[in-house]
Design a protein that fits this description.
Low-confidence stretches: none
Order of helices and strands: EHEHHEEHHEHEHEHEHHHH
Number of strands: 8
Largest sheet: 8 strands, mixed
Helix content: 40-55%
Strand content: 15-25%
Radius of gyration: 17 Å
Distance between the termini: 23 Å
Number of helices: 12
Structural class: alpha/beta
């Protein structure tokens, strides 16, 4: 089962959420996390992989690409595939190759989490949503963020990618969040997975180069992510069949 962790704008906490959900799900499933944001990747910093030699960029090269296995690292109880931050490597990478890389990864894992770009303005940005079985929408409880997230869901629908649920992040108004989630459930196809409070622990985890659940496992934010992971409907499937679907997926010519 492949999930694209998506949002309509940057700064919503997608990468923090991807790794937190990955660690929580890894207590029950074999989990692989992929930094599918090939243009603005920062997952390698969050996962303590800033100094690795091989990243997803190397796998996506048109000429002499690295094998997918060379970019897979065992970290915090899950497999992590980081992407580099070099603009030169990004330009040299072929986003169409992501389909085959994801197919190979899917054949060897139970749950695949794709940390996706925030905007739908390029082929590399929309591919994770097109390839995924379902999206997990991460957003802050604001009107602009809700509006942008609904656009992401509408795009996912157009490629028959469902919505696994909505994760409200950086929640500061605990008294008013219930009203917002009730409204949101009228418009989103999936349930509210959890409401994650704004947390200094999340910021400290980023600075430490660790996922939140590794840096502050007893924090209220970490508890919220575990609640979200327990709420996600992970439908068991034959990994080989999932991989075959990725290989035959239609790559959009434009977003």
């Amino acid at each position: 089962m492949a999930f694209a962790i998506a949002s309509g704008k940057g700064g919503m906490g997608k990468t923090t959420s991807t790794l937190a959900l990955g660690m929580a799900l890894a207590t029950e499933y074999d989990v692989t996390v992929v930094a599918a944001d090939t243009g603005m990747a920062n997952l390698l910093f969050h996962a303590g992989l800033a100094d690795v030699d091989t990243t997803l960029h190397d796998v996506l090269l048109s000429d002499d690409p690295a094998p997918v296995s060379a970019a897979v690292y065992e970290q915090f109880g899950m497999k992590v595939v980081p992407c580099g931050t070099s603009l030169t490597d990004f330009k040299a990478a072929d986003p169409a190759r992501l389909r085959h890389a994801v197919a190979e990864l899917a054949a060897d894992t139970d749950v695949l989490l794709l940390d996706s770009p925030a905007a739908l303005d390029s082929k590399s940005a929309v591919l994770p949503i097109v390839l995924a079985d379902r999206i997990i929408v991460v957003l802050e409880p604001t009107i602009p963020a809700l509006s942008d997230a609904l656009k992401v869901q509408e795009y996912a629908r157009s490629y028959s990618t469902g919505t696994a649920g909505v994760l409200f992040n950086k929640v500061r108004d605990e008294a008013g969040i219930d009203r917002i989630t009730e409204q949101a459930e009228r418009y989103f196809d999936g349930p509210t997975l959890a409401t994650v409070p704004a947390s200094e622990h999340a910021r400290a985890a980023r600075r430490a180069g660790k996922p939140l659940l590794a840096h502050a496992p007893e924090s209220t934010a970490a508890d919220a992510y575990r609640t979200a992971a327990a709420t996600i409907d992970v439908r068991a499937g034959e990994s080989g069949a999932v991989a075959d679907r990725f290989r035959s997926a239609v790559i959009p010519k434009s977003p």
